[in-house]
C-alpha cells in the first residue's frame, strides 16, 4: 500500500524534476544565451542576461546567417520532397498491399530496405554529377525522395492492408477506374498515415545537414542547417554563441509549430504504424 | 469539358472491365503496376543504384586530384586499414550504436512508464519530453557543446573544471547520452503505444493473483511490449550507426579521433577530396549495417514469438 502512495505523490514530483533538469535546463540555456550580448555569452552559463538584446541578436542571425535565403532554400527542397515521398509512396503502397505474387513481395522488400540500409552518400554525389544534377535542388529532392520513400511505403502498406477491400469494390462496380479509386477512396483514407509520414520526413529533411553537405554544399542553395553549420563553424574565431542560439531557436520553431498543429494525428499515426 | 472527358472514359472502362477480368488476374486490372512505377524508378535510381555503384568506386582512385578514374584494386582499403581508421571506425560506430540504443530505449521506457495514464498532466509532459526530437540534431549538438564545454554552463554551475568533451575514453559515452536524450521522446511514444495495447483485463488478472507492480511489469507488461521493443531497438541501433550531426557538433570526431564514427570519417576525407577513400568507408558501413541488421531483426522476431 505504501508503495502505491509513494507512486501517487512521487511520480509527478519525479516527472517535474526530470523535465526541469533534462529538458528545461538546455532550453533555458538556449533562450537566455540567444538574448545576451556577445561579451556575456563567450562563456555560456545559465545566468539571466545583464544586458538584454534579443532583437539585435535575431536581426544579426537573420542578416549574417543568410537566414531568409536558407529558409527559402529549405522550403524549396523539403516541400517537394515530402509531396513526392507521399504521392509516389502511396501509389506503390497501394499496389504492394493489394497484389500478391513473388514479384510484388520482392519489390516491397527492396523498397523498404532503405529503412535499414544506409544511403551510399559518396556515390550519390558521383551519380548526380553524371546526371548534371550535382549541387542542384532537383538533385537534392531526388536524393531525399529516394531515401525517405522506404519510410512512407512501410507505414502506408501496413495501413492499406487494414482497409477493407469492399470499399474499393463498391466503387468498382459503379464503374470507377483504378486512378479514380486511388484518388477518391485510397488517398482520403490514408489521411492519418499521411500525417505521420509527413512529420517523419519533414523532421529528417528539415534538419538534415549531412546529405545536404554532399549534394548542395555551401553557397547559394545552402539550406538552414547548412547555414547553421557555417555560423557555428565560425565559432573557432569569434565565439558567437548568442548568434548560434538565435539561429537554433528560429530553425526549430517551424518544426515545433508543425508538431503542435498535428500533434494528435502524429501520435496516433506513429503508434498505429510501429506497433501492431 | 473536362467532365465530359472523364465521363466517357469511365463508361469505356465500365464496358471494358468484365473482359479484362476474364483474361487477367483481378489485381492486375484493379491495381496496375504503373501506380508503383514512379516510386520504383526513383528508389532504384537514387537509392539502389548508388549503393550498387558503391561496390565499384572504392576500388578506384577517384579523387579531386585525378582527371579520370582508374581501377586500383584494394589500395583504398589498405590505406584506411594501415592508418588504423578502419578498425577504429568500426569499433567506435558499433560502440556508439550500442550505447545510444541503450540510452534512448532506457530513457524512453522509463518516461513511458512514468507518463502512462492519460491525464492532462501526463499529456503535457509527453509533449515536453518530445521537444528534443523536434530540435535538429545539429542544434542539439551545439546546445550540449555550450553546456558541457570546459568553459561551459555545467562547469560554471558546479564550480568544476571538467573537460566533459575532452576525454578519449569517456567522451564517446557522453555523446551517446546526448543521442539518447535527443531521441528518447520517439522511443517513449512507441513504448506508450505498446503499453496501451496491453488488454486491461490481463493487468486486472495479474493484480487479482496478487502480483505487485514489479511482478506485473516483468511477467505481463514486458513480454507484451515485445513488438515495441523490436521496433525501438532496431531503429535505434541501426539509425545510430548512421549518426553524424550530434558528433560533428559536439566533438567533430575528437579528441584524438575517439569519436570518429563512419560518417564523420567520410565527411572529413571527402572534404580533403579523397572521394574513393571516403566511398571505401561507406562500403564498409554498408556491410557492417547488413551484418548487424540481419541477425538483429531475425533474433528479435524470434524473441517476439517466444514471449
TrEMBL record, chain A:
Compartments, record wording: Cell membrane
Keyword annotations from UniProtKB, A to Z: Cell membrane, Membrane, Transmembrane, Transmembrane helix, Transport
Topological relation to the membrane, as annotated: Multi-pass membrane protein
Keyword Iron in record: no
Transmembrane segments annotated in the record for this chain: 75-95, 107-126, 141-164, 185-206, 241-262
GO biological process: transmembrane transport
GO CC terms in record: plasma membrane
The ABC transmembrane type-1 domain, residue ranges: 71-262
Pfam families documented for this protein: BPD_transp_1
Domain of life of the native organism: Bacteria
Chief localization: membrane
PANTHER family cross-referenced by the UniProt entry: ABC TRANSPORTER PERMEASE PROTEIN MG189-RELATED, ABC TRANSPORTER PERMEASE PROTEIN MG189-RELATED-RELATED
Family: Belongs to the binding-protein-dependent transport system permease family.
Protein name: Carbohydrate ABC transporter permease
TrEMBL record, chain B:
Predominant subcellular localization, coarse grouping: membrane
Compartments where located: Cell membrane
GO cellular component entries: plasma membrane
Statement: the UniProt record of this protein carries the keyword Transit peptide: no
Membrane topology: Multi-pass membrane protein
Chain residue ranges for the region called Disordered: 1-22
ABC transmembrane type-1 domain boundaries: 90-296
Keyword terms: Cell membrane, Membrane, Transmembrane, Transmembrane helix, Transport
GO biological process: transmembrane transport
CDD domains: TM_PBP2 (cd06261)
Family note: Belongs to the binding-protein-dependent transport system permease family.
Protein name per Swiss-Prot or TrEMBL: Sugar ABC transporter permease
